[in-house]
Input
Amino acid sequence: MGHAQRNTVVTTVKNKCRVCFTCVRECPVKAIKIIDGQAEVLGERCIGCGNCVTVCSQNAKVILDLKDEVEKLLNDKSKKVVAMVAPSFPAEFIEYDDHKILIGMIRKLGFDKILDVAFGADLIARKYKRLLEERDDKTFISSDCPAIVFYVEHYHPELVDRLAPIASPMVATSRVARDLYGKDIKTVFIGPCIAKKAESDEIDEGLTFTELREMFEKHNITPENSEPSGFDGPLSGMGSLFPMSRGLLQNVKKSDNVIEGNMIVDSGKQNFKEAIKEVENEEISGYHLELLCCDGCMMGPGMSDRNNFYFKWSQISKYAKTKLQNLDVKQWQENIDQFNHIDLKQSFTPMDRRDDTPDEEKIEQILREMGKFEESDHLNCGACGYHRCYDHAVAVAQGYAEDKMCLPYTIEQLHQSVEELNTTNDKLKTTKLELKHSEKLANMGQISAGIAHELNNPLGVITMYSNIVLEELKKDNPMRNDIKLIVDQADRCKNIVSGLLNFARKNKIRVKEVDIVAFLNRSLDSVIIPDNVKASVISNVTNPYVMIDEEQMLQVFTNLEKNAVEAMPNGGELKIYVDGNENNVVIRVTDTGVGIPKENMDKMFTPFFTTKDVGKGTGLGLPLVYGIIKMHNGKINVKSNSDTDEGQTGTEFIITLPRVN
Ligand code: ADP
Ligand code: MG
Output
């Protein structure tokens, strides 16, 4: 921007930004950088239009506040301070039906003189008229809107000579003020515009209408405690219409009929860009472009509200109409002539702020990273604030934007994360279940060891003495059967106890390399397989070697095989499949037995769970199997069907063992 010290009229409040990208979308020059999820206004690129300020619902953008500076000027009695009020005030201070109330209140703040900027507009209107009459075929762009001027200087520097070389109404008024009150005065512009705060070094400070209201409040200045008074200095005329987008046009009494007037009038943040681009491309020539960044100054960001366009329009028009009706035209003309000598020229300097376009390859790469591989992936949804995906990628390459700003891309990433989370969740669930099993088994191990130890000795005594008694009894002794029963039951107890001891002892493994296929075939020999059961090992591996504790693993498979056989009282098939890859072997022990009912599936590995008759099952087989597999860092799963309606019944235990432990 222009004003020496003030190249930033809008700043960002840290941490207030909620990253909606509305400011990016609304900024006509993309002077907003998104870093770490926070929007930051780039003073260098900003043209001071204030769009970002008005659209931010979080109040995360603040306008450069010069109230304190103005207070300082007012307190320093050594210099006259002149206020210059923009002609859009009737659209802001609608509560005062006479403008003298407002002027009186401003005076009470301590301003020595108050000038009407509309007079400056009257003065420059004459210059514009002459320019339009004299300019051959050259297209001029009006230079009264500072945001438009900044835009041309920064982004179309080669068009700077097309800016009308005429001062703005504000600058013209300040020159009038110095002519009237001397060079040594201080000037304060009061208006709806924030770019004005940086427009010119000729003006000392700038206030928005909103800030003026704040100052009234601070000093408790009300219509009741102030004396109404009119503007100082010369009377203004048509210049009062200036804040409406056709203001200048009215002023020079030209029609915007293209044939008659060769004047194009436009306002609003997109339209002015289009118009200037067309001038650059020489698509239009021989016209005058009357451009305003806002929809007329009366819709500027320094207004306390930016609604009710037509109402504002009517307020200004009403004010101007009454004023013109009562205007002393002779007096006005005299004023104009009185200030005719004032130099109203203005020059502009190119200040190129354009970035180099990043190379195409980089842009392509960024687009690919955002999941955009083909033209059809370019949704151009605008959610990121940029018009097209391509523009977004350019901004990413230039360091102004982040790829995370792409909503469809982020949503897709989120979906992926959710899926990953689900998988992790599932894994967690299984691990939790496994942990529960392990815990139960560990507890069981301790208890079993204790019980087994205590029972083993008395049981030994019972077995030994009942056997002695049995041997000593004559064959025909009627007591024999009873003693035999004691011997059998004591044997049964010994079996249970030795099972418990087995279970408790399994806490260490000693592995060696074993040919698993040969080993499985051998394991079948240790199980009594009835004639009606066909047992076989089917190998699909070329490398059968696995590191296992052979003795313990033998218990695993004999238990599984026994269970399978017991599940097939009427015969069937017991098949053991061996599959695998270079890291694992997968052994599936399958049978065509009765299957396991669904309700028993999660009880199977619980110690003492058995469905077998008393004396037949102990319910210690599968817990033992589970413990040994876990010690081998393996996994065991079960699939089973016990419902004939669902097809062949049977069970499949799937064991995965790492080849190396
Ligand atoms: P037990 O064989 O002493 O009953 P296990 O721990 O070996 O104890 O087995 C527990 C229970 O799991 C069995 O009682 C049975 O209900 C069920 N089971 C185990 N393997 C099979 C199988 N192959 N087919 C059907 N049920 C099975
Ligand atoms: Mg068993």
